[in-house]
Design brief:
23 strands, 4-stranded mixed beta sheet, binds thymidine-5'-diphosphate, Rossmann fold, Ribosomal Protein S5, domain 2, Rubrerythrin, domain 2, binds magnesium ion
Length: 457
């Protein structure tokens, strides 16, 4: 019986009030005998739950169905596809591949209805050429080259698409919001109109935003709170691109998608675990440590590189683009306190091979080891992989999914895996559990090099 899914509710014929049970008199308008049986879904045209409240159990969850975008990586970052009626902002530097990605999604999205690709940046002919190159021709994909909100609105009403791409929000303009495109006012006004349209018609909406190196500029920032998800497309070194959610109402904001830019557009990298690992003849040089990091639902092995040089004029600095400088400074301070080695008179340079940005706390131990190795000139043993968050007291704190990290490291030939004491299954067998920095360094470098002055003494 489908009665469970589309539950019956009772609605007042007089005022529209909805009740989960039949009542003789409407509690809203006081009319007698006015409540009529109705399926919750029938009320949708009246915007049930939006113009008047609806019992939560009677809401049809089908309303939130997701659209498979045709890219497993994009689906993953969105939390399992694009929600109907939702708006997603995709930001990234010019030339990173936003238009390419979205045109590819247009070609592959699993969608019955029509798709409208609006570009204020390229002519229809340019878009056609690119689509040819990407193999992105399909029926029901329509292109409109304008930034004029009035025209876009007209096209939306005529085409009634299920999926809409706006490339980019910086080219949007509406008379109502002043004459100049690209101002924060214009972007906000236009984005708001489009988001409202998508929500009302239950279409999926992608908005492209160009951002500069320093992060989101004023305009797109204003649009961020209007949308359901904000994805950032970033370039690591070479041909790799990562897609990351900084906001996601319908999924986790931790997943990343990884792509490679090739001559047929963006290709997905399904198994990136060893992608950022540097293969070398012989062992590590000093200043290098490998960390198994847990990004969303995957483990990546990454190489953290550090360099320390004496600071000039007593003013020390941290140069670190891929790991937040505050974290580097904090780990260096913990290290100074608990290893007896001085960092506070040094400039610290930190990099991540492959250029991927790391945000998770489980990199602390590898970061500490890279800094220690750089400062001491003693290389870590080849084949070591280090995971663990550091407390200010120098203890190693548990990290998520340590067992999976250990397995990924070992499958890539890194046999000496150090991690925290966590009680997780596999501890002791799949990784060596370390209580603190002192113990970890003793294990890595041998007792002779071990840090002498841990708080645990
Ligand atoms: P594009 O999608 O235009 O970037 P954005 O919309 O973010 O500004 O990406 C353009 C870059 O990608 C451009 O430098 C050319 C390159 N590219 C390829 O390498 N292969 C391809 O198949 C395509 C379509 C683009
Ligand atoms: Mg573009």
């Amino acid at each position: 019986m489908s009665a469970k899914k589309t539950q019956t509710v009772y609605r007042c014929a007089n005022c529209g009030r909805v009740e989960p049970r039949w009542l003789g008199r409407c509690p809203e308008c006081g009319e007698w005998n006015s409540l009529r049986e109705a399926a919750a879904t029938e009320l949708r045209t009246d915007r049930a739950g939006e113009s008047f409240p609806l019992p939560i159990a009677s809401i049809d969850p089908g309303r939130g169905a997701r659209i498979a975008t045709g890219s497993a990586e994009v689906d993953r970052v969105l939390g399992g596809g694009l929600m109907r009626g939702s708006a997603v902002l995709i930001g990234g530097e010019p030339g990173i591949g936003k238009s390419t990605l979205l045109l590819q999604l247009c070609a592959k999205a699993e969608i019955q209805g029509r798709i409208l690709y609006v570009s204020g940046e390229e002519s229809p002919a340019q878009i056609r050429l690119r689509a040819d190159r990407l193999g992105a021709l399909r029926e029901n994909l329509e292109v409109l080259a304008t930034g004029d909100l009035g025209r876009i609105h007209g096209a939306l009403e005529a085409v009634k698409p299920s999926l809409v791409i706006i490339d980019s929000i910086q080219t949007l303009h509406a008379e109502e919001a002043g004459a100049v495109p690209g101002t924060a006012n214009q972007i906000k006004y236009c984005a708001q109109e489009l988001v409202a349209w998508a929500k009302e018609r239950e279409a999926g909406l992608f908005l492209v935003a160009h951002v500069t190196k320093d992060g989101l500029i004023a305009g797109p920032k204003a649009a961020e709170h209007l949308v359901d998800a904000v994805l950032t497309f970033e370039q690591s070194e070479a041909e790799f691109r990562t897609l990351r959610a900084s906001k996601n109402r319908f999924g986790s904001a931790e997943e990343i998608g990884i792509f490679r830019m090739g001559d047929k557009g963006l290709e997905e990298v399904a198994d990136p675990s060893g992608l950022f690992l540097v293969r070398r003849e012989g062992g590590f040089p000093a200043g290098v440590a490998v960390a198994p990091v847990h990004e969303g639902s995957r483990v990546l092995l990454v190489e953290i590189q550090a360099l320390t040089v004496p600071a000039k004029a007593g003013l020390t600095r941290v140069y670190s683009e891929r790991i937040e400088s505050g974290r580097v400074a904090r780990v260096a301070a913990v290290l100074e306190k608990h290893s007896g080695m001085r960092f506070s008179d040094q400039d610290l340079y930190v990099n991540v091979a492959g250029g991927i940005r790391l945000v998770e706390p489980g990199i602390d131990l590898a970061l500490a080891a890279a800094l220690y190795s750089a400062r001491s000139g003693v290389a870590l043993p080849a084949g070591a992989a280090l995971a663990g968050e550091l407390s200010l007291a120098g203890e190693l704190r548990p990290v998520r999914q340590m067992r999976r990290r250990a397995r990924a490291a070992r499958s890539l030939g890194l046999e000496l895996v150090l991690g925290p004491v966590s009680g997780e299954e596999g501890e002791g067998r799949e990784w060596r559990a370390m209580r603190d920095l002192k113990e970890a360094f003793a294990c890595l470098l041998g007792r002779a090099d071990a840090a002498p002055s841990s708080s645990k003494g």
